[in-house]
Every structure is written in structure tokens, then in C-alpha cells.
Amino acid sequence: HSESPQNQVLTPTESVVGIVVFFATFFIPAAYVMSNLKFFKGE
Amino acid sequence: THQTHAYHMVNPSPWPLTGALSALLLTSGLVMWFHYNSTILLSLGLLTNILTMYQWWRDIIREGTYQGHHTPIVQKGLRYGMILFIVSEVFFFAGFFWAFYHSSLVPTHDLGGCWPPTGITPLNPLEVPLLNTSVLLASGVSITWAHHSLMEGNRNHMNQALLITILLGLYFTILQASEYFETSFSISDGIYGSTFFMATGFHGLHVIIGSTFLIVCLLRQLKFHFTSKHHFGFEAAAWYWHFVDVVWLFLYVSIYWWGS
User: Fold this and answer.
1) pTM for the complete prediction?
2) A 12-31 residues with CB below 8 A of B?
3) pLDDT per position as a tens digit, B27-40
4) Looking at the complex, does the CB of residue B25 fall below 8 Å from at least one CB of chain A?
5) Do you find a cis peptide bond into B117, omega within 30 degrees of 0?
6) Does A40 contact B18 at a Cβ distance shorter than 8 Å?
7) Chain B contact set for A21 (CB, 8 A)
8) CB-based contacts of B136: which residues, under 8 Å, 6+ apart?
9) Sign, CA torsion B70/B148/B132/B102
């Protein structure tokens, strides 16, 4: 009754693009804040 | 291809990765908050964590409830997984109790050789903490009422009992928050404050997680996701809730009562 898993196999390029986008989304804002600490220190 | 076994062959999912990255953001965000009073990374961590939880749980509900992947053998695996997770949580709290008893059974000279340490005025265990104990014990009763109603197909009772359990959980959180404002000691006031807030704070976090788990169960129940025979999501939430309840009993007896 259930479909066979993963009907579409990703190419290596697609995987690389996906992983780069994911890591960049999380790490770029964090890296920006960490490298500009003095502007983010409150009080 | 035709599948000739009952196991769930999972599809690739990005949520473990986004969950791990958001956990990193949460920890660095907490450091930024504690040390620099900046909440940007923490907010980003909370946002990505909530987004991960929403999408991951949506996928699992789709697989288990609508696509029929949670066959009896898969449910057995889920049960083992939940049991092992709760066992790991038991050891997590055992560490805090170890720290507490290590410090309180033979208090050092620095503390005045007594427990509670000299200068510490502990909370009265017979006031709000006793009320909290009865609130959590009552919620343990109401979640059992909810489970039996679910198994007997009594939808109204299930909804009411589950709602009551959630309200009792929220009531506990409110009482515990108001109690924190009443303390004359802080987490940085030596070993008493450190062990007290570390243990009760992590317990409070687990109550909030358990309440979230139960709220998700109520939303799913309202959408008719549970049947009288197939409702492991609810059972896992109930196990977790009982675990949180038992941890509180140990906290109450050890830290609030004996420790005062």
C-alpha cells in the first residue's frame, strides 16, 4: 500500500548544493555575530 | 518494486542536520545571552529549532498515520527507542542528584559544616512545592484516565482528560516560575544555589517539553489521528510525562524536603 521509497535519486551536484545551502543558512548569521561581537554586546 | 517485509525503509531527511545545526546555534546563543546579553543567536537557534521540530514531526505523522509505515514491528522499534531515550534521561538527572548528595551529605567547612549552608534560607517544602507535588500526581491520574478513554473509544473523555493533564502541566510551570521569584538565593550563590537551580531548572525544562508533547497529542487527537489500537505517539508522551513526574518526586523528597 505504500510507495517504494525515494523515487528520485539526487545527483552529487544536487546533494552538494543542498548541503552548502543548509550549512550556509545556519553558519553565516552565526559567523557574522561572532566576528562582530563588540557590536552585539548589550548593556 | 514490491516490499515483502514489514520494516520501514526511511527516506533521506534534512531534519537531523537542521536539528543539529540549530542545537549548535542554541548553545552558542545561550553563551551569547549569558555573557553578552545579546539574544540574536539564541532567537535564531530557537526559530530554526521550532521549524525543525514542526517539519520533522509533520513527516513522521505523515509516515505513521497516513502512509501506514508504522507496522507492529516498526512500533516495537519505536518503543525500544523511547525506552532507551528515557533511560538516558534518568542518567542525566542521576548526575544532578549525585552532585546534590555529594555536596549535602558531608558539607565542607566552607559551608559551615551544615546543610543548608550557612546564610541560605531554603524554600518551605510544605507550601508551593507540596502543591506542585499534588498537581503533578493529579496529572498522572488524568493522563491514565485519558489513555483508558482512548483505548475504550470514549472520545469526549479522552479530550477532556488530556486537556486537564495539559492544564495541570501549565499550572505546575506557572507555580514553579513564581516560586523562582521567591528564592533568596541564586544559581551563583555557591553549591546550594547551583545544585538547586541546575536540578529543578532542568526538571522545569522537561515539564515544558512534556507539556509540548501532550499539546501535540491533543492537536492530533482533535484531528482524529489516534485509534483505540494505534496511538504510540500518545503512549510515548504518557511515558515521558510519568518520568517527569517521578523525577519531581525525587526532587521534592531530596532537595526541597530533606535538603531543607
Assistant:
1) 0.91
2) 18-19, 22-23, 26-27, 29-30
3) 999 999 999 999 99
4) yes
5) no
6) no
7) none
8) B168, B172, B244, B245, B248, B249
9) negative
